[in-house]
Amino acid sequence: MIRDVLTLLGKDLRVEWRNQELALATLFFAAVVMLIFVFAFLAGDRPSAEVCSGVLWVALALSGTVGIARGFEREREGSSFRALLLSPMAREVIYVSKLTGIALLMALVAVVALVLLVVLFGAMVGEIWPTLLLLLALGIVGFSAVAALFGAALGRAQSRQVLLPLLLYPLTLPVLIAGTRATALLLSGGDAAQISFWLRFLVVFDAVFVSLGVWLFEHVVTAGEA
Amino acid sequence: MKLSPWFLIVLTLAVFGLAMAPQLIVAAPREVTMGLVQKIFYYHVPVAWLTFSGAFVCAGGSAAFLFRNSERGDRIALAAAELTVLFGLCVLVTGPLWARKAWGSYWKWEDVRLTTTLILWFIFLAYLFTRKYGGPGARKLAAALALFGAADVPLIYLSVQFWRTIHPKTTVVSTLGPGMRGPFWLALVSFTLLFFVLLELRLRLEAARVARDELVLAVEDWEDAQ
Amino acid sequence: MKVMMFVLLLLLGGGTALAAADKEGFEPVNGDMMARGESVPAPRLVAGAYGFIFGALLLYVATVVLRTRRLEEEMQELKRRIEKKSV
Description:
The complex is a heterotrimer of chains A (226), B (226) and C (87).
Chain A: H1 2-19, H2 21-41, H3 49-77, H4 80-86, H5 91-121, H6 129-154, H7 160-171, H8 173-187, H9 192-220
Helix pairs in contact in A: 1-5, 2-3, 2-5, 3-5, 3-6, 3-8, 5-6, 5-9, 6-7, 6-8, 6-9, 8-9
Chain B: H1 5-27, H2 41-68, H3 71-102, H4 112-133, H5 138-163, H6 178-225
Chain C: H1 2-24, H2 42-86
């Protein structure tokens, strides 16, 4: 199964490597969002830890959605997703490979957003970066678990461009709450016990939503509507 | 419209209960510290209970639709989702009205129950949005949304609770004085019966819609044959 | 099997939430927490709350009845069309 996932993932990565559309568009979008935040929040003093963590996670969620929507739209244009669903490949494999692809894209955005956060907002990530990266990874997995299912299920539904964020944000709000709170605590040198609570919380969220996604994917995503 | 005897009995009981409840509520002893404003709770709590029950009924119907292909389950899910949004709106309006007096402001984000209800409300609003604008293929997608939403409720509750360090301060049912219990339970039972009445009404509407669609198709076929 | 897994997951999530809620506990409202010098009169708030609930419910029932009636009229119209043609 892992080999199949890697095969599909390799296919998606090769497609992306040839034209870089998703990565460039998403990164550019994230940078623009950060720039808007600079003018919204940086009038005088150094921004608080809350502002920095909010900027990071909001930029990640917004640009992630843009990339995910475009990714599934591209597959629809080429009917490649339908072809995939018609193939004998197990549905779990398709879901997990999509999840991994989205997570990789968002991880790329997260790294760039983090660099911009340090450069533009002067955030101090000197010693906390391992925990911060773990936090981002857990949050990204949770977000991608929901996004992979609904992005694929939206298929040819009408008004799908509007529906994706409408479905995605309320469902992933716990991820955003956990992410922003824990990042703010990290940046302000907060209580370690609370940070570890949020990390464990994200692990539970990821477990629940990845298993739900694997389970529901085959029922919700059908070749007829992809 | 033909009505079954069961429907009439439940309808009578619900109307009777709802007509009786205000008199008992007026007669109930005044809560010492909160005074008159505490009387909002007699309706607020049953309505909140039905908001969450509606969400789980919707998830149950969606599960039946997804895994057993049950059309009836799908109709129940849609009806329950509408009721969840309706009752949720009542919760979101009456809660702040109580808080205005008790806490001095309409909304306190520290209140985990109200905030959780708000997020749940958004998820089911997204459900209705998907059903209305998603087109024919979006029913399975909406069902997945309902299941995700129901699984999300405990996680939302937990994350909102730990989001702020100040914790919610609300009375619970078990602390109600003896004179307050009668009207409270009457209101709770009446509202629950009302929920079933409304559900049945809404299901009839959906059944009529299906019958209409079938008739339209039949007429078109028939006219084509002519 | 899968249904059981789902129920298990729900229980897991619900259980953690409840355990956390239990640990934190809820404080009953006491006199100190009530807002002082409050300007909005309580009767108006209570009337607003009850009025809103009844108003919303009535409005909802009205829309459901209206939508059902419109569908029934439409069906009657269709049936009339069939009868007229078949004569």
